[in-house]
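Methods — Computational structure assignment.
A single polypeptide chain was analysed. Its primary sequence is given first, followed by the predicted tertiary structure written as structure tokens.
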Amino acid sequence: MKKFREIDRALDGKPKHFDFVRIYNTSVEELPENMFSNLTFDRIYVFRNKDLGSIHPNAFGQKNANISKDLNLEFNNLTSTNIFRVASNFHR
């Protein structure tokens, strides 16, 4: 997932907001803390990643500030405990 850090560096001084990112059908096992660096998205779709078992509570930034509208986590191998820890960091 270092691609997001590379994008962040490449856009230095330019807007870093995108409509959406889709992580689909990968072999990713974890979404680590601050995975998206300084990039922001309206929507993040994470689905059909059979090896994805964990999302760090701050994977989407502090208080999940990297997402403004929608987070979709479907058909992954996440536990409900992990999903609720991630969701508890969202704010209105």
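Note: Residues 3-10 form the longest helix (8 residues).
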